[in-house]
Amino acid sequence: MGAVHVTVTIRNPAEPSRCWEGLFLVDAGATDSLVPECHLRAIGLEPKGARVYETADGRKVEMNVTTADIEFMGDFTAGRVIMGDDNAEPLLGVTALESAGIEVDPVNQQLKKLPALRLKRATR
Known about the structure:
Elements: E1 5-12, E2 15-27, E3 33-36, H1 37-42, E4 49-54, E5 60-72, E6 75-84, E7 91-93, H2 94-99, E8 102-105, E9 110-113
Parallel strand pairs: 2-7, 3-6
Antiparallel strand pairs: 1-2, 1-5, 4-5, 5-6, 8-9
C-alpha cells in the first residue's frame, strides 16, 4: 500500500484554542499517534508518562506520552499521543482511526468514513 496522508489538528483538551495542525502519515500498523514533542509543548501539553514501543526495525524504545484531542476528516476523538523527536514525521495510529470511525481502503489508498461505528452488543 502507498502512503496515505491526512491533515490532523491536535488540541490541548484543557485549552481547546491551543492547537497544532499538520499533515500526518496514516500508519495502520501503529497503535498510538505520534507528534513531534516541540509542537505538543507549544500548545501546552506535557508528558503524562512513558511507554515502551517497538519500532519498525524491532528496537524497543521508551517514549514520553500525553493525551490530546485529535481532529481529522470532520470528526474528533481523544487519545494517547507519543511525544516524538522534534524532526519526526507525525503519524496517525489505528486507535484514533477506529475511534473516529475511519478505515483505510488499501485498494484505493484512501481513508473512508464508516456509516456507523462498530459496536458489539453485550450478551446477558
